[in-house]
Design goal:
about 210 residues; mainly alpha; Cytochrome Bc1 Complex, Chain D, domain 2; 2 domains; 10 helices; globular
């Protein structure tokens, strides 16, 4: 079965089983333009509060540099609305306006992403090929073969912190992270075993 068809079937199954999206953000042309017009210089000022966690290599908070602006904007909105939960981020996002969020997203999206070491292969085969026997689509269908992410708001995975990637997949699998549209990541991560989660996290953290 072709990867594109497998992904369609997976998302159709998720939509049928779970119904409505798990976010309040609707990607209208107006919203996309609003995020695109974010003021990076103001975002740089706001980011001084964020860097203590996100710029620290030994902190599990994700690296944000080079991330898609649309993805960052939606995550901040979801934290504020309660669709995504974290004690620190929920509190911080509550004081941000829509413009603040767009500005922060613009700043981080414009920074150079951390480059992985390269020269790695995926021992699970799921990143590039998926697993048709489990109706598990390839990660590359949404996140691209390079792990750079895809519009509208599918995040960059390449060069991301290993611990964060592992925690994210584990949280999706456990159902403790719930802001994935139509449960698609919960459905996908739910089919992974703990070893595969660790291997995929390691693979993407090293991917250039």
């Amino acid at each position: 079965m072709r990867a594109s068809n497998l992904m369609i079937l997976t998302l159709m199954a998720a939509a049928t089983a779970y119904g409505a999206p798990s976010t309040q953000v609707a990607w209208t042309p107006q919203t996309l333009q609003f995020v695109k017009s974010g003021k990076a210089e103001h975002g740089k000022e706001l980011a001084q509060t964020c860097n203590g966690c996100h710029a620290a290599a030994d902190n599990p908070a994700p690296s944000l540099e080079g991330q898609l602006a649309t993805y960052l904007y939606r995550q901040l909105q979801d934290f504020k609305a309660g669709s995504r939960k974290d004690p620190v981020m929920s509190a911080l996002s509550s004081s941000l306006s829509d413009q603040d969020m767009a500005d922060l997203a613009a700043w981080y999206a414009g920074q150079e992403a951390f480059a992985g070491t390269g020269g790695v292969s995926d021992p699970t085969g799921i990143a590039g090929r998926g697993d048709p026997t489990r109706m598990e689509p390839p990660c590359a269908v949404c996140h691209s073969g390079s792990g750079a992410g895809e519009k509208v708001d599918t995040p960059r995975l390449s060069g991301q912190k290993t611990g964060y990637l592992e925690k994210t997949l584990t949280d999706y699998k456990a159902g403790t992270r719930t802001n994935d549209v139509y449960h698609r990541m919960r459905l996908i991560a739910g089919k992974l075993n703990d070893k595969e989660i660790k291997q995929l996290a390691d693979y993407y953290s090293k991917l250039r």
